[in-house]
Design goal:
By secondary structure, the protein is α+β, with helices and mostly antiparallel strands. The chain contains three helices and seven strands, in the order E-E-H-H-E-H-E-E-E-E. It has helices at residues 24-37, 40-62, 71-76, and strands at 3-5, 12-14, 67-70, 86-89, 95-99, 102-106, 111-116. Strand 4 and strand 5 (95-99) form a beta hairpin. The structure holds zinc ion. The site of zinc ion has 7 residues, from loops.
């Protein structure tokens, strides 16, 4: 008889060799974790975006809804300018880079304009 371990909890399983889990709940736990955020790329970029959002949120919520700050201020707070969730162009020709509902538009001399989208 084969003896091997449950991939989720490590319990010894007796029986067919293709049986990988001791029961359904172990199989579900294993598969959920694997698909949700076990991919290192997804996890890493989600963390960057979440942090970027937090930086913008702090600056916007503690100042005005529209405010002008120097890029250095964002860098100092760990903002990563390489990552954003989407880009929007206004009819006036400005480009906004968003991290979820918070965004910024590059201005002259390394300043950026911060915005927050209204719930609609
Ligand atoms: Zn198990």
């Amino acid at each position: 008889m084969d003896q091997h371990q449950c991939l989720e909890c490590g319990t010894q399983i007796r029986g067919r060799k293709d049986k990988k889990f001791c029961d359904d709940s172990c199989r579900n736990l294993f598969n959920n974790r694997k698909s949700a955020n076990n991919n290192p790329w997804v996890r890493r970029i989600q963390n960057i975006l979440r942090h970027n959002r937090k930086v913008l949120q702090e600056l916007v919520d503690h100042q005005l809804v529209k405010s002008k700050v120097h890029r250095m201020r964002l860098y100092e707070m760990g903002f990563n300018f390489q990552y954003h969730t989407h880009v929007q162009k206004t009819p006036a020709g400005n480009t906004y880079f968003f991290c979820f509902e918070y965004g910024y538009a590059p201005l002259e001399q390394e300043y950026v304009l911060l915005v927050k989208k209204d719930k609609k």
